[in-house]
From TrEMBL:
Enzyme class: translocase
Annotated GO CC locations: endoplasmic reticulum membrane; plasma membrane
Organism expressing this protein natively: Cyprinus carpio
Highest classification ranks of the organism: Eukaryota, Metazoa, Chordata, Craniata, Vertebrata
Record's catalysed reaction(s): ATP + H2O + phospholipidSide 1 = ADP + phosphate + phospholipidSide 2; a beta-D-glucosyl-(1<->1')-N-acylsphing-4-enine(out) + ATP + H2O = a beta-D-glucosyl-(1<->1')-N-acylsphing-4-enine(in) + ADP + phosphate + H(+)
Compartment annotation: Endomembrane system; Endoplasmic reticulum membrane; Membrane
Protein name: Phospholipid-transporting ATPase
Active site: 426 (4-aspartylphosphate intermediate)
Protein family membership: Belongs to the cation transport ATPase (P-type) (TC 3.A.3) family. Type IV subfamily.
Membrane topology term: Multi-pass membrane protein
Entries under InterPro entries matching the protein: ATPase_P-typ_cyto_dom_N (IPR023299), ATPase_P-typ_P_site (IPR018303), ATPase_P-typ_TM_dom_sf (IPR023298), ATPase_P-typ_transduc_dom_A_sf (IPR008250), HAD-like_sf (IPR036412), HAD_sf (IPR023214), P-type_ATPase_IV (IPR006539), P-type_ATPase_N (IPR032631)
Length: 1219
C-alpha cells in the first residue's frame, strides 16, 4: 500500500510546481536549465497545442515530432543492395562462403576458376534477396494505400475543414471523423456529436476485438451542437510515445489554469474505427510511427527451435571435421614434397614444404567447402513454409462458425510442435466455452437456484451474447411484493428486499457493458430519459416504509400487474437491446438482472439509464468507474442515488477478495449473511460454477469529498499514475456490506476430455493454471478427464506440507512407481501457496514433487504466477513447454513458453496477437500437436540428417582422391559439376521429402497417441543418429571411390574420365538413399528423383558436347559422351550403387524385423485390412494399458489430504521459514 503522505513524492516533481500557462512554463523551464527547452522538454513529456499556435517554441517543438507518414519497408531504391547485403552478412554461413570465394582469388591457394567459386554464394544470396524484395514490395504497396487515405483536417486560413492525406497530418492538427471512418492518428477526443460526449470505437484492426469500446470527451470542454476550433485554446501535456495500448497519462490545462486528467478513455487510437457516433473531433497527439499501433507493430515473432539449436551444434562438428581433413591433407602434402628428389615433372619452386603445406591447408578449405551445407538454411526456410501451408489449409482444423483456421504467426518453430513435453493451459475460454450462463445466486444469505435456465444461441457475433434466464420463482415472488399494496413489510423482510434491490442494481450498473440494437448494432445513441411511471415522491415514501435508509434502492410501482409488467420489460428488452461486453461474465450478469426487470438501457460517462421493477427509465448519476485490475481482482462504480441523493459504491469481484473486504461488518444480520453466503459459495465451487461476490458501501458526503480530492490528484498525475490510482481505489473499497454472490456455469468445449486424454497418452504432462477457486478447478478437471476417479489429489498448502508430500511420494516411488504419466497422483495448489513454492529455496522441492504427479492444477493464480511457473519448469527441467490461453491474462504465459498458442475466443484477441500459433477450439490442439507436430519434426529432422549425409559423402570422394594426387588439392571432376552437384542436382528432392513425407498416416497418429513419444525423445535426430549417418557417408564414399578406381586401374583414361563414373555413382547412391529413407513415395517424389537424375546427365552431356574453354586449363570436351558409350561405365555405376546401399538396406531390414519400433509397427498395421487394423489397434491399446497398470503401485493408505482449515497457520509457518 502506498501511503497518502507519499502521494506528492510519487506524483513527481511536475505536480509540485505552480500551474502556469505554456509560455510561462517554457520561460521558467529555460531559466532553470539554461536554454535548449524544446529538446529537453521532449525528453520528459510531450506538449501539444493546436497547429496554428503562434508560440515559436511550441511550433519548433511540434515540428520535431514524427509526421503521420508511415513506412514499414526495410529498403529504398538506393539502399536495397547495400542494406540487404549487410543483413545477409550477419549470417555466419554467408560470411564463411564469401571468405572462401575471396580466398579462391588468391593465386597461390586457389583450387579452381575464381569466377566459378562465387556461384554458390551468389545463387543463395540472390534467392534470399529476391524473397526479401518481394516481401518489401508488398509492404510498400500497403504503406501507399494507408498514407493516401483522406481525412478532414481544420485549416485556420480557410476557416474550414479540408481534405488531406493521412501522410500530411501532423501533431496538433484538429481532425474531424464521421461514423465508420478509420482514425488516422492517436487523438485526444475534444468533441462528439453525442449529447453525452461519448463515442464508440471498434479496435478490430488493432487487437482483433469486435466489441465496442467507449471513449469520452475530455471533462470541462463545452459540448454543443457545433465545435468551434478557433475557441479551443487549451494545451495538453502527456507522456512520450509508448506501446501500452491500455494506458495514456497526461492532462489538459484550460485557459483558466484548470487541469483535467487524461486517460485511455479520452484517446482515439490509430487504425480503430469510429462507431455509434455521427461526428467526432480530436487533436492529434501522436502521429506516424509514434502512434501506439505502430509502436506495437513488431513484425513476425522469431524463436529458435530446439532442432535449430541442435543443427548449429552439428554444423560446428562439420567445421571441425573439415578442419581435420584439411589438416591431414596439408600435412600429407608437406611430407609428399619432402620426399621428392628433383622430379622432372614439377616446375622448380623454392617454397619450403612447410609453407607449401600451409598454403595447401587453405586450398583444401576451398576444395572441401561443400562439407558445410550452404543450401541447407535456404532449404529449411522453404520446407517450413511448405509445412505451414499444409497446416493452415487443413480442413480438420477449420472452424466454419468463425470462418477461421489455424494461424501460424511464428514461421520457424513448426518442428517444436512435435517435441512438447509439458502443456500449460488456462481454464476459462480455453477448456470451456467462455459463454456464461447465469445459473444460481445467493442474496442476503438465501440461495436461489435457476435450474430451468438454458442457453439461447445468438445469430450475431460471438461477443454479442444472448442468454435467456428464467427467473427463480421464489426470488421473483419477493420482488413482486414491492408492487403489491403499500403496506409496510416486517423489518427482517424489508432488509432482505433491500439487499435484493441493491444486488440487482449493482449487477446492472457495475460493469462496462455497451448497449446497442440488433438491427443497427453500431449506430445507437443513448435513450432519452422519460418520466417514471410513478412519481419520485411515491418512491421515497416506499423507502421510508421500508425504514432502512442504509439500503436505498430505486423502486416504484406501476398500474400494470407485476407479472405482465415483468414479461413486457423482459420481452421488450430482449427484442430491442444487445449487450456487448469485454467479458462474457458481465454480459451474463446484465442479462440476469434484466430477467428480473432491472434492465440496462444505456450508458454515458455521466449517467446510467436503467429500468427497475415498477418504473420507467431511471437515470443514475455515474460519478466514477474504478475498472477491474488484476491486483485488486474487482471493479467498482461510484454513483449518486437518484432518490436519496447518497453516494453509493457498488463493488463486484472475486469472492475471496470481497469477503475479506466485508469482514469488518459488526451487526448480526451482516455476519449471518456472510456465513450463509460463504456456505453457498463453497457449494457453487463444488458444482464447478464461476463465483462472484457483490457488495456496496454508502459514503458520507465529507468522506466522499476527502476521497475525491486525493483521487483527482492521482488522475492528473503523469508519473506513477497507476500506483496512485490503485491506492485510491483500495482506500475506497473498505468496510463493504455484502449483498450476495452469483454462480455462473461455463460449459466445457466439445471434445476437450478426448483431447486431454490423448495428450496424456502421448506422454505430455498437462497443467491447468487458472484464477478460479480450488473446488471449481477440480470439478472442471474431473469433467475434462484431467482427473480420474481413482486419482489421489495432493493438496499442497504450505512449506511443511510440501516436504510431507514429497516424503510420501518418495516412499511410493521406491516401491515401483515411475515418474511418468503412470502416476495416479495429481497436485492441487492455490495461489498463496504458489507464491512460497516459487521462492528459490523451495523451487527444487516443488519440482521434485510435480515430477511424481501426472498433472498439476494451480488455482487462484495470477498472470505473473502463470508465467513464473512456465519459466521455472522450462528452465529447471530443460523440457519443451507449450502454453495455451485465450485472454489478456494469459499473454505472459504464452510468451514465456517455447510454443505459445492463442485461442480466438470471447476475451478478445490479445492472446492470439502474442502467440506463435492461433486456433479457435481446444480440440484442434490434438491434431495440431499429435499429427502436424509429429510430421513437421520427423520430416525436418530426417531432411537435415540427409543434407549432412549427402554433403559428407560427396566431399569424401574428393578427400580420398588426395591420397593419389600428392595432396595437391586437385579434383577428378570439373569445377562446374563440383559446384552444382549439391547446389542444384541433389537439392530439390530433400525439400520435397521435408514437405510431403509421412512416416505414419494422420488417422493412425490420432488412434495411437503413444507414437508422439518418439518426437519427445528426439529419436529422429539423436547424436548417435547423426554420427551413424556420418559413418555411413564415409563407407559409401569409400565404395563409390575405390570400385571405379580398381575397375580402371591400369587403363589410360584421364582424370576427368576417372571422375565421370564416380559422379554418376554418387548421384544414384544419394538419390536412392533418399528413396530408402522415404516412408511415402508418391508420383511427386518419383518425378522429382527422375528429374534430378535427368537434369544431371543432360547438364554433363551438354557440357561435354559444347564446352571447350569453360574449365581452363583443362578441356572436358567429349569426355562424358565417350565414357557413357563404354559398357564398363554402367557396370561400375550399378555395382557401386548396390554395394554402397546394401548395408543400410540390410541394417534397416534387420532392425525392423527383430526389434521394430512403435512407428514401424504402426506402419505395418496400416497395410492390414480394415478389420485386421481394428483388431490390431484394440490389441495395441490393451497392451499399453496393461503396461501402465503393471507399473502402478500406489498404496491405498497413502495420506494425501491437507487440512484446509489450518491454511492460514501453515502459510504463516512457511513465511517464517522463508524469511
Amino acid at each position: 500500500m502506498l501511503g497518502i503522505e507519499n502521494l506528492p513524492k510519487l506524483a513527481g516533481p511536475f505536480l509540485k510546481t505552480e500551474r502556469k500557462g505554456p509560455a510561462a512554463m517554457i520561460q521558467q523551464f529555460e531559466q532553470d536549465h539554461g536554454g535548449g527547452m524544446a529538446k529537453d522538454l521532449a525528453k520528459n513529456r510531450r506538449v501539444v497545442m493546436p497547429s496554428w499556435t503562434e508560440h515559436e517554441e511550441i511550433k519548433e517543438l511540434q515540428k520535431s515530432y514524427s509526421r503521420n507518414k508511415v513506412r514499414t519497408t526495410k529498403y529504398t531504391f538506393l539502399s536495397f543492395i547495400p542494406k540487404n547485403l549487410f543483413e545477409q552478412l550477419h549470417r555466419f554461413a554467408n560470411l564463411y562462403f564469401i571468405f572462401l570465394a575471396a580466398l579462391n582469388f588468391v593465386p597461390i591457394v586457389n583450387a579452381f576458376q575464381p569466377e566459378i567459386s562465387i556461384i554458390p554464394i551468389v545463387f543463395v544470396m540472390s534467392i534470399t534477396a529476391v524473397k526479401d524484395l518481394w516481401e518489401d514490395q508488398r509492404r510498400r504497396k500497403s504503406d501507399q494505400k494507408v498514407n493516401n487515405r483522406l481525412c478532414d483536417v481544420y485549416d485556420r486560413k480557410q476557416k474550414r475543414y479540408v481534405e488531406r492525406r493521412w501522410a500530411e497530418v501532423c501533431v496538433g492538427d484538429l481532425v474531424r471523423l464521421c461514423c465508420n471512418e478509420i482514425i488516422p492518428a492517436d487523438m485526444v477526443l475534444l468533441h462528439s456529436s453525442d449529447p453525452n460526449g461519448v463515442c464508440h470505437i471498434e479496435t478490430a484492426n488493432l487487437d482483433g476485438e469486435t466489441n465496442l469500446k467507449q471513449r469520452q470527451v475530455v471533462r470541462d470542454l463545452p459540448q454543443g451542437s457545433e465545435f468551434v476550433p478557433e475557441n479551443y485554446s487549451s494545451h495538453i501535456e502527456c507522456e512520450n510515445p509508448n506501446n501500452d495500448l491500455r494506458r495514456f497519462r497526461g492532462f489538459m490545462e484550460h485557459p483558466g489554469k484548470v487541469r483535467v486528467g487524461l486517460h485511455s478513455e479520452n484517446l482515439l487510437l490509430r487504425s480503430c474505427t469510429v462507431r455509434n457516433t455521427e461526428t467526432v473531433i480530436g487533436i492529434v497527439v501522436y502521429a506516424g510511427h509514434e502512434t501506439k499501433a505502430m509502436q506495437n507493430n513488431s513484425g513476425p515473432r522469431y524463436k529458435r527451435s530446439k532442432l535449430e539449436r541442435r543443427l548449429n551444434m552439428d554444423v560446428l562438428w562439420c567445421v571441425i571435421l573439415l578442419l581435420l581433413m584439411c589438416l591431414i591433407a596439408a600435412v600429407g602434402h608437406g611430407f609428399w614434397l619432402s620426399g621428392l628428389q628433383n622430379p622432372i615433372y614439377m616446375i622448380p619452386d623454392d617454397t619450403h614444404p612447410a609453407l607449401a603445406a600451409f598454403y595447401m591447408f587453405w586450398t583444401m578449405i576451398i576444395v572441401l567447402q561443400v562439407l558445410i551445407p550452404i543450401s541447407l538454411y535456404v532449404s529449411i526456410e522453404i520446407v517450413k513454409l511448405g509445412q505451414i501451408y499444409f497446416i493452415q489449409n487443413d480442413l480438420d482444423l477449420y472452424n466454419p462458425v468463425l470462418d477461421t483456421g489455424v494461424q501460424c504467426r511464428a514461421l520457424n518453430i513448426t518442428e517444436d510442435l512435435g517435441q512438447i513435453q509439458f502443456l500449460f493451459s488456462d481454464k476459462t475460454g480455453t477448456l470451456t466455452e467462455n459463454r456464461m450462463l447465469f445459473r444460481r445466486c445467493t442474496v442476503a444469505g438465501t440461495e436461489y437456484p435457476h435450474h430451468e435456465n438454458g442457453p439461447f444461441t445468438s445469430k450475431h457475433t460471438p461477443l454479442i451474447l444472448w442468454c435467456a434466464v428464467v427467473p427463480d420463482p421464489q426470488l421473483q415472488a419477493k420482488l413482486n411484493t414491492l408492487s403489491s399494496a403499500m403496506r409496510s413489510p416486517p423489518r427482517q423482510q424489508a432488509a432482505e428486499i433491500s439487499h435484493i434491490l441493491d444486488f440487482f442494481l449493482a449487477l446492472t450498473v457495475c460493469n462496462t457493458v455497451v448497449v446497442s440494437s440488433p438491427t443497427q448494432p453500431r449506430h445507437v445513441q443513448m435513450p432519452v430519459v422519460r418520466t417514471p411511471l410513478r412519481s419520485l415522491e411515491e418512491m421515497k415514501a416506499m423507502f421510508q416504509k421500508l425504514s432502512l435508509p442504509r439500503f436505498p434502492s430505486s423502486l416504484s410501482q406501476n398500474t400494470d400487474t407485476p407479472t405482465s409488467l415483468t414479461k413486457k420489460l423482459f420481452t421488450r428488452g430482449r427484442s430491442k437491446l444487445l449487450y456487448e461486453a469485454e467479458s462474457p461474465d458481465e454480459a451474463a450478469l446484465v442479462q440476469a438482472a434484466k430477467a428480473y426487470g432491472c434492465t440496462l438501457l444505456g450508458r454515458s460517462p455521466e449517467q446510467v439509464l436503467v429500468v427497475v421493477p415498477g418504473t420507467g427509465p431511471l437515470s443514475i448519476p455515474l460519478l466514477h468507474v474504478l475498472p477491474f485490475h488484476s491486483a485488486r481482482k474487482r471493479m467498482s462504480v461510484v454513483v449518486r442515488h437518484p432518490l436519496t441523493g447518497e453516494v453509493v459504491v457498488y463493488t463486484k469481484g472475486a469472492d475471496n477478495v470481497i469477503m475479506e473486504l466485508a469482514e469488518a461488518a459488526e451487526d448480526g444480520f451482516s455476519r449471518e449473511v456472510m456465513e450463509r453466503t460463504q456456505r453457498n459459495l463453497d457449494q457453487y465451487a463444488r458444482e464447478g460454477l464461476r463465483t462472484l461476490c457483490v457488495a456496496k458501501k454508502v459514503l458520507e458526503e465529507q468522506e466522499y469529498e476527502a476521497w475525491l480530492k486525493r483521487h483527482e490528484y492521482a488522475e492528473t498525475s503523469i508519473e506513477n499514475r497507476e500506483e496512485l490510482l490503485l491506492e485510491s481505489a483500495e482506500r475506497l473499497e473498505t468496510n463493504l456490506t455484502l449483498l450476495g454472490a452469483t454462480g455462473i456455469v461455463d460449459r466445457l468445449q466439445e471434445e476437450v476430455p478426448e483431447t486431454i486424454e490423448a495428450l496424456q497418452e502421448a506422454g505430455i504432462k498437462v497443467w491447468v493454471l487458472t484464477g478460479d477457486k480450488q473446488e471449481t478447478a477440480i470439478n472442471i478437471a474431473f469433467a475434462c478427464k484431467l482427473l480420474r476417479p481413482t486419482d489421489h489429489i495432493l493438496m499442497e498448502t504450505c512449506e511443511a506440507r510440501l516436504h510431507e508430500l514429497q516424503h510420501e511420494i518418495r516412499q511410493v516411488t521406491k516401491e515401483g512407481v515411475s515418474e511418468d504419466d503412470s502416476s495416479d497422483c495429481v497436485l492441487v495448489i492455490d495461489g498463496r501457496t504458489l507464491d512460497y513454492t516459487l521462492q528459490k529455496e523451495l523451487q527444487g522441492s516443488f519440482l521434485e514433487l510435480t515430477c511424481c504427479c501426472r498433472s498439476v492444477i494451480c488455482c487462484r493464480s495470477t498472470p505473473l504466477q502463470k508465467s513464473q511457473v512456465v519459466r521455472l519448469v522450462r528452465d529447471k527441467l530443460k523440457v519443451m513447454t507449450l502454453a495455451i490461453g485465450d485472454g489478456a491474462n494469459d499473454v505472459s504465459m504464452i510468451q514465456m513458453a517455447d510454443v505459445g498458442i492463442g485461442i480466438s475466443g470471447q476475451e478478445g484477441m490479445q492472446a492470439v496477437m502474442s502467440s506463435d500459433f492461433a486456433i479457435s477450439r481446444f480440440k484442434f490442439l490434438r491434431k495440431l500437436i499429435l499429427v502436424h507436430g509429429h510430421w513437421c519434426y520427423t520430416r525436418l529432422a530426417n531432411m537435415i540428417l540427409y543434407f549432412f549425409y549427402k554433403n559428407v559423402m560427396y566431399v569424401n570422394l574428393l578427400f580420398w582422391y588426395q591420397f593419389f594426387c600428392g595432396f595437391s588439392g586437385s579434383t577428378m571432376t570439373n569445377s562446374w559439376v563440383l559446384i552444382f552437384f549439391n547446389l542444384l542436382f541433389t537439392s530439390v528432392p530433400p525439400i520435397i521429402y521435408g514437405v510431403l513425407d509421412k512416416d505414419v498416416s494422420g488417422e493412425t497418429l490420432l488412434d495411437l497417441p503413444d507414437l508422439y513419444k518418439s518426437g519427445q525423445n528426439s529419436q529422429a535426430y539423436l547424436p548417435s543418429t547423426f554420427w551413424m549417418n556420418i559413418l555411413d557417408a564415409f563407407y559409401q564414399s569409400l565404395v563409390c571411390f575405390f570400385i571405379p578406381y580398381f575397375a580402371y586401374t591400369g587403363s589410360d583414361i584421364g582424370v576427368f574420365s576417372f571422375g565421370s563414373p564416380i559422379n554418376g555413382s554418387a548421384l544414384l547412391i544419394i538419390l536412392l538413399h533418399q528413396l530408402i529413407e522415404s516412408r511415402t513415395v508418391t508420383w511427386i517424389h518419383t518425378a522429382i528423383l527422375l528429374f534430378s537424375a535427368l537434369f544431371y546427365y543432360a547438364f554433363v552431356l551438354l557440357f561435354s558436347l559444347t564446352c571447350v574453354t569453360c574449365n581452363s586449363p583443362t578441356n572436358p570436351l567429349g569426355i562424358e559422351t565417350k565414357m557413357m558409350s563404354d559398357p564398363l561405365y554402367y557396370l561400375v555405376c550399378g555395382l557401386t550403387t548396390v554395394l554402397a546401399l546394401l548395408p543400410r538396406i540390410l541394417c534397416r531390414t534387420f532392425c525392423n524385423t527383430i526389434c521394430p519400433s512403435d512407428l514401424v509397427r504402426a506402419q505395418k498395421m496400416e497395410r492390414l485390412s480394415a478389420q485386421d487394423y481394428s483388431m490390431s489397434l484394440r490389441q495395441w491399446k490393451e497392451n499399453k494399458a496393461a503396461q501402465r497398470l503393471s507399473s502402478r503401485h500406489v498404496p491405498q493408505n497413502l495420506s494425501v489430504n491437507a487440512d484446509m482449515p489450518h491454511l492460514t497457520d501453515c502459510i504463516a509457518e512457511a513465511g517464517a521459514v522463508l524469511s
